[in-house]
Amino acid sequence: MSERSIANFQASFPAAVATNRATVRPVAARTKLLLEGPILSTLLRLAAPNVLNLLAIAGMITFDGLFLGRLGPDALAGVSLAFPFVMLIQHTAASGMGGGVSSAIARALGAGKRDVADALTLHTFVLALGLAAAFSGVLLLGAPFVFRWMGGHGEVLSSALAYANVAFSGAISICMLNLLGSAVRGTGNMGLPAGVIVASVIAHVLISPLLIFGWGAVPALGPAGAGWGLMLSFGAGSLVLFVYLRSSRSLVTLTFGGVSLQWGLFAEILKVGVPGLINVVITNLSVVLLTGIAGHLGREVAIGYAMGARLEYILIPLAFGFGTAIVAMVGTNWGARQYRRARAIAWTGAVTVAAACAAIGLFVALFPALWMELFSGEQEIVRLGTRYLHIVGPIYGLYGLGMALYFATQGFGSVVWTVTANAVRLLASAGGALVGIYWLDLGAIGFFVAVASGFCAYAALTAAAVYRVKQPAVPPAS
Fold first, then answer.
1. What pTM was estimated for this model as a whole?
2. Which residues does residue 215 pair with via DSSP β-bridges, in sequence order?
3. Residue 76's closest CA among 86, 65, 84, 87?
4. In this structure, is the dihedral angle defined by the CA atoms of residues 466, 468, 469 and 471, taken in order, positive or negative?
């Protein structure tokens, strides 16, 4: 989003809604907290429910690996090929396009335009339908070719496709759960979406082993069972959020009458959401490319890296837990023209997330076997995964800093440069890995150092990007 479009954000809203254009309602108590509450304590208060969300997503990542690991290394390797794409859907809907939803609704509420926030909620619902259809169509068609390129053959490929065909078909449940949750988060309500996602993941963890291994009259579905568990549980969570947004308890209301779909409101979401989607694609593409590169060093290196990268998929929900609070606080203050406070929130949140990710990284670097032995007992896989965590773990604080600053720029409504920083991270990691392996002949060590170097570049460039964001030169229309 350009600085001029940021400046005219509030003025553009009335033109996008045909009804009640002049309506400006009193500031809600929750919005007032975002505008006036102490920064750190308010941030922690908003992020606290999302700690449960973090634990839930971490549980899903960990338990899926535990359950599927019992089917053997081929099943685990196969699902590891498909898993980055499931995380692509999850992260696109949650922190990518979902960030655009939260940012737009928060800025509308900060400007006192609650009718606009209601209209944005309807547009969010429609966007979830379209996004899910696109993901299902593209991934179902492309999966066989991509998995073969990543090294999938025989039983590994069969396991990957068994899981992917179900999970990709159920993209609607993932998109709807996360985008409707983002609409609620844009109002400053973090507790309900976190609770619904926690309940959905718990249901997934409970029913997945029954579907994977079978029980009584339930047949053993193998890797496909994990996909069915995800689709059913997230679908139920989506229904809960749908009912809430239709009720009078919600600060914004999902209504299907009285407001027509208009490009102006889609644009307010997409200006942040599309770069956010690109950012998520880059994040997950980096894992896909690096997994493919690692696969050329042997199955053990590929699995060792994949199990280490699963830990990074836990850091992302941690950053997301704080990041959703950062988006709501920064966006609300930016919409209310409290630019200095918005920047202070951005840097406070970034330091907090960096410290949390650094603590996790240092712990796994000191005790890597506690993580690696959850997934495999093969000595070589554990050894390589341990080496990866020794090298990359201490850098996780910088990765956390970069992710938090990305969420801050979502709140500003200007994410192009932080997305560019993530693209540079991908190029630095993949390019450095190829140089280390094929030119310097450093093998797995060169590969792991390249990944760490990419995280360092990411932190430096996102910090520079935040400094580039300027407050609107033209005061927004009242």
1. 0.69
2. 218
3. 65
4. positive
